[in-house]
Amino acid sequence: MSAQTAVRVSEGLVALEEEPTRLAETLDDLCTRWARASGAVALTVPALLPVADLAALDVYRNFPQLALVSSPLNVAAAGTGQIEQQASLGEFGPEALRGAGLALPSSACYGVYLHHRDRQVSPDGELVTVVAQCFRNEDRFDGLRRLKAFRMREVVALGSPDQVTDHLDHSARFLEALAGEVGLPLERRAASDPFFESSERATFQQLLPVKYEYVYKGLAIASVNTHFLFFGERCAISLPTGEPASTSCVGFGVERWLHALADHFGGDWELAQDAVEKAGKSLA
Question: Is the pLDDT of residue 202 over 80?
C-alpha cells in the first residue's frame, strides 16, 4: 500500500490505515521503552484543560492564533430546531454556543505541569512520559506535515537545573542514535521557544538557545526544550529546598515522523517498518 492511499487527510484531520498505524505504534513503543529505561513513569493527562489554567501559562498571550477551545451547545437559548439546522449546515454560530471554559491543548506537556501544580519534586527529580492528542489552529494544513489534530510523545523532567540539563543531553543522544539507526538524515537547529517570545525572559534566547529542533528536509519532527524556572514558578512546583523547580522536555511529533519515514523510504511502509524495528532492537 502506498503512502498516498494509506493516509487520508482532510482539513487538517488525518486517518491512518493499517500500515502507518502499525508504524506509529512501533515508533511510539520504541520511544516509550527508552523513556521508561531512563526512569520515566507513565502519566495520562486530560484531553481537555481549563482555559484559566492555560492562561496562567501565557498560552493565550504567546500564541492565541493557534488556540482551539471546547464549547457546549446552548440548547435552552437556541432551541433544538436551530441547533439541528446549523448542524446540517456544518457549523454552529455563536448564538448556539455557551462559554468555552475548556481548551484542546496544543502540547502534551501542559498537562504534566498542571498535574504537578503545588507539589514538591523528589530530591532526585522526576521524569514523566505522556502521549497526547494535540490541537493547533494552523493558518494552513499540509498532509502529515501540518495537522489540526496530531499526537505528541513527550518526556518531561522536573528538578534541579543540573537534573533537567542531564535529561536534555540524554534525550539529544537518543534522538541522534535513533535517527542514525533508522538511517534518517536529521539536522539539529537552534530554534525559538514561544514560552519566552513575549516575556521578560526573551533575552535568554539571544544568549543561550532554549530549544533545539531535529529537522528532516525543513520539517521539525522532534525537539529538546529547556524552560528554566518558567513552569516551576507558574505552577508552584518546588524543589525540596523550597526553590522553584526547573523543567525540560523532549517531544516527538508522531505524524511528522510518519511523514519523514514515508518520504525517506519512498512511500514503502514495509521498508520503514523494518528500519524502525531494527533500530528498536539495536537501541534496546
Answer: no
Neighbours of 68 (CB within 10 A): 15
pTM of the model: 0.92
Confirm if 196 and 205 have CB atoms less than 8 A apart. Answer: yes
State the Cα–Cα distance between residues 50 and 117, nearest whole angstrom. 14
Q: Rounded to whole angstroms, what are the CA distances from 66 to 9, 59, 69, 114, 205?
A: 19, 9, 10, 20, 22
Cell of 275: 528500519
pLDDT given at position 45 = 96
What would the pLDDT profile of 104-120 be if each residue is shown by its tens digit? 999 999 999 999 999 99
Q: What are phi and psi of 250, to 5 degrees?
A: -120, 135
d(CA 282, CA 151): 25
Amino acid at 168: L
Rounded to 5 degrees, what are φ and ψ at 144?
Answer: -80, -10
> Which residue type does 232 have?
G
